[in-house]
Amino acid sequence: MKILWVKSNLLHPLDSGGKIRSYNMLAKIRKAHEIHYVTYADAMIEGNGLSRAAEYCDRVFHVKGPRIPPKGSVRYYSKVLASLASRYPFTIESYASNRMRELIRGAAAADAYDILVADFLTMCLNIPVELPVPKVHFSHNVEAKIWARHAHHEKNRIKRFVFERERDRVASFERFITNTYDFTVTVSKNDHDHFADVYGARRLGYIATGVDTDYYAPIDGVEEPGTIVFLGSMDWMPNIDGVLYFVRSVYPMIKSALPEVRLHIVGRDPVPSIVRLAEEDSSVSVTGAVEDTRPYVARASCAIVPIRVAGGTRIKIYEMMAMAKAVVSTTIGAEGLEYHAGEDIVIEDDPERSAAAVIRLLKNEGARRAIGRRARAYVASRCSWDSVAERFMGLLERAKDVQ
Fold first, then answer.
1. What are the Cα distances from residue 389, in Å, to 58, 108, 139, 400?
2. Could you give the dihedral angle defined by the CA atoms of residues 390, 392, 395 and 396, in that order, rounded to the nearest 10 degrees?
3. Helix, strand or coil for residue 228?
């Protein structure tokens, strides 16, 4: 099969769950299929991302991307407010480009592709609906659900209005794409059922979340007592919300019980509100981008995923479980994943109960190691990328038959 894969960015560095999922699947798929990758890229900015694309595709088409202001900046919020009059969501319209539309149209006209995959919703506005090639929307999240959860937790009335407006526009666009494209692939049964029940979509399938258990393996002898780790891209709003919630509502109770505790926030592009956490509390460190997250996970006594507003699935949970770490997550944080609560992961939504769970694990080495062993055994037996990629290709074959 010859596949035209459309995504907003190159995959290296592998510093987000979406990139990691796409990379692992493409690397597996490419062994038996031809992949042409269409993206935004600036060789001066992307570092070695362009040269490393050969690891997951046979050919790259790229144009320079639109300029999106840094999140949290005045220009960013100005553009958000200006976009309220548009019919399209700000998070989608920001990636719109006539150059990209022409690139995709030209690539599809010049070659006989069996299928086109739009990786995430962000690029769908650039894909001409009239292209004769079968189109698949690869949805890593129910994007409208994320905005709905942001609105639910937001106390500022102006911000809540903006979130609600974005929620409605994203839902409308998601519904349109899901019912217009030949097929939609989601990353969990929860997301699959949302598209079916809320959007009325019928051409659907879902894949599981995978993990490379050879790469993410336990590292013995380096754990630092009393250390908590959070892992995730710190320019993604659900992660920002989750970390701020944890530091403000949960962490003080942990510090009261364990004054020597430390929290490491590990992830790319931390926004100013996250950077300030380390400036205000010496027990908190904010690393920014790191080349390899495994040493930070290995040194932690336990990991946290205090997410309140996300959709999709958190690959980082399975990565940390594969490293035999005890993970304390909210229900939404672990949404869409298969697990056994209390056995291979701890699920708590109440701040006091979350703090108590972390305190118990930090104090009780036997308890956290037992959870970690069960976590490692579970993902090692069920969550290989080979099986996920095989399932994905089966869904693409179904999409070809739709037309």
1. 17, 24, 15, 17
2. -100
3. strand
What does the pLDDT look like over 251-305, one tens digit per residue?
999 999 999 999 999 999 999 999 999 999 999 999 999 999 999 999 999 999 9
Q: What is the mean pLDDT of residues 310-316?
A: 87
Other Cβ atoms closer than 10 A to 156: 9
Distance of alpha carbon 243 from alpha carbon 304, whole angstroms = 9
Q: What is the pLDDT of residues 208-226, one digit of tens each?
A: 999 999 999 999 999 999 9
Cα separation, 243 vs 254, whole angstroms = 14
Please provide residue 225's backbone torsions phi and psi, each rounded to the nearest 5 degrees.
Answer: -55, 140
Please give the CATH number for the structural domain made up of 2-210+385-402. 3.40.50.2000
**What CATH number does domain 227-382 carry, 3.30.565.10, 3.40.50.2000, 3.40.190.10, 2.60.120.260?**
3.40.50.2000
Whole-angstrom distance, CA of residue 90 vs CA of residue 165: 10
pTM of the model: 0.88
194: tokens are 């949302």
